[in-house]
Specification:
By secondary structure, the chain is mostly helical. It is built from four helices and two strands. It has one domain (3-90): Ferredoxin thioredoxin reductase catalytic beta subunit (Ferredoxin Thioredoxin Reductase, Alpha-Beta Complex), CATH 3.90.460.10. A two-stranded antiparallel ribbon has the order 1-2.
Length: 91
């Protein structure tokens, strides 16, 4: 799979997740692309789409908390209007 295909697949996945949970994706295409590329990079490098805006500890069990969508995203969206990575937004 090429980088572009992987990014398209990740974007489709993020779009479906957002729709299912009543969120929207970042309308800023540049920022959205940066986050999507970061997720693809982390999935390729570490085997999981870890949030690119959070630091991995190296402990796979602990790092599951930061696999997108991370365990923090719902609270952040409710409180701040978007998740920390600014991938998902309130509708």
């Amino acid at each position: 799979m090429t980088g572009n295909e992987a990014e398209e697949d990740m974007l489709k996945w993020a779009t479906a997740y957002a729709k299912k949970h009543g969120y929207t994706l970042n309308p800023d295409e540049k920022q959205l692309g940066t986050v999507i590329r970061g997720l693809v990079r982390n999935k390729g490098k570490f085997g999981r789409p870890y949030c690119p805006c959070r630091l991995r500890s190296g402990d796979e069990e602990k790092d599951r908390a930061i696999e997108c969508p991370c365990v923090y995203h719902k609270e952040e969206i409710a409180k701040d209007g978007s998740c920390h990575c600014r991938l998902y937004y309130k509708t």
